Amino acid sequence: MTAIAELEPREVWEHFQTLCDIPRPSKHEQHLRDYLQGWAELKGLGTQVDSAGNLVIKKPATPGMEDRRGVVLQGHLDMVCQANSGTEHDFFNDPIRPVLRDGWLVADNTTLGADNGIGVALALAVLGSDTLSHGPVEVLLTVDEEAGMGGALGLDGGVLDGDMLINIDTEDWGEFYLGCAGGVDVNVRRAYAVEALPTGYVSGRLSVKGLRGGHSGVDIHEERGNANKLLIRLIRELEDELALRVASFQGGSARNALAREAFAVVAYPAADAGRLASRLDAFQQAMRFELAGVDEGVTLALEPASADRVMSLADQRTLFAALHAAPHGVRRMSRRVPGVVETSNNLGVIALDQGKLFANFMVRSLLDAGTRLLAGEIDSLFGLIGAEVEKEGEYPGWAPNPQSPLLELFQQVYAREYGHRAEVKVIHAGLECGILGAKYPHMDMVSFGPDIRGAHAPGERVRVETVGHAWHLLQAVLAAVPARD
């Protein structure tokens, strides 16, 4: 028995249990997809796996609803895989083990996968129901969303028949989303020279831990700490004060998550060990003061580690100067949508070892031109130091359509069921709607979902009550879909 076993609505949570049981990292969703395809075929539903690996399941209209407009329910199969240091969890083999706490289902030391497992579970519950009233329904379950929108970008044309799409991948109940940011990944690579450990030096492993992390789009405006940027800042200060040398650096583990932890094997004069300990204590206090109210749990530590080679001093200064200067965080707030971030960047992953540097920047913007501008600035910066810069996986934003008939349908049903109209929002995160809209220009789209907090970080949780609300609303909307013109 798990924490999910007694939750209601049962028809939704039983599918989420399946998603917890079958591992589904990005690019490794095939076992889950095969299971769901087999499940759907046993129920007599039509299925198709397209060339990108996306699963489409089609369910005919219930009797008397054959004339209704076709609806596509859409979500993604993969999840962000993050675990706290010291947590032994193999995301390729181990199930997620959530617990129920104060009305929330939570995974304490790993991500939960409510993003987007709850959306998928809601769609599967529609497919599995024998009592709902609805017109023709298609469920599109994409792959590789969290690692670059690969499934949506590769979706075959002509796969979908419906002209109304309900994306179930947002995280605030009582809000309907009508637009989202586009984005692009900027990958930086550069070789560097190595040399022997200087005479009189000893080595250790510097760590920055204890940060909250979070979604690199949804949480970027909160100005939480980024472990990569903090450790780079510390190294820049110590390379002058203590002639610190760097042997390796590893920070962050997901492109679309704020880096919670970063580690560097460093070398320093043995005679300066006391000064280094004092300096780390002072830096930790300063960071806790700067990050008060958002990330005051930041912790610095120096642990034993061995190194016999370090970066050349010239390359160390060049590379860490560029990484220190690289943008991170909010670049611009939207003038068109007050209170929403327009353009941002996340320095999500750095790997520096054995003469090679890799760094990933994830740029987002509500304006496609804003995405290209900030990505171009990063390209220019690292071009100055002779790095190889690659921009990949660019996807468009989803431009809002305030006159959306599907939005009005959602608002009418929501007001009838809950006594007031919902808020309409634009999200600074990458939903697949922009990509799908480019492939299916006729598609009318709205996104909604239950309350999810802490997506992309350990401790991710979903409010159980709002899953029930989302299920109730989805049933009511499907029953109210109008007839085709």
Distance between the termini: 49 Å
Overall geometry: elongated
Number of folding domains? 2
Question: What class would the helix/strand composition place it in?
Answer: alpha+beta
* Residues in helices, as a percent range: 25-40%
CATH architecture of the largest domain: 3-Layer(aba) Sandwich
User: Looking at this structure, what is the CATH superfamily of the largest domain?
Assistant: Zn peptidases
Total strands: 23
Task: Give me the number of helical elements.
Answer: 11
Gyration radius from CA atoms, angstroms: 24 Å
CATH topology category name of the largest domain: Aminopeptidase
| Mean pLDDT score | 96
Determine and state the CATH class of the largest domain: Alpha Beta
- Uncertain regions: pLDDT < 50 for 5+ in a row? none
Query: What fraction of the residues are assigned to beta strands by DSSP?
Result: 25-35%
Largest sheet: 9 strands, antiparallel
Give the structure's gist in a few sentences:
With 485 residues, this protein is of the alpha+beta class. The chain has helices at residues 10-21, 30-42, 114-128, 150-153, 227-241, 273-290, 313-325, 368-383, 405-418, 433-439, 464-480; strands at 46-49, 55-59, 71-76, 99-101, 104-106, 137-142, 164-167, 175-180, 182-191, 194-196, 201-209, 245-251, 262-269, 299-304, 309-311, 329-333, 341-353, 356-365, 388-395, 423-427, 444-447, 452-453, 461-463.
Structure characterization notes:
The chain is α+β, with helices and mostly antiparallel strands. The chain folds into 2 domains: 10-180 and 397-480, Zn peptidases (Aminopeptidase); 184-395, Alpha-Beta Plaits (2-Layer Sandwich). It contains 11 helices and 23 strands. A hairpin with a 2-residue loop joins strand 4 and strand 5 (104-106). 48% of the residues are buried.
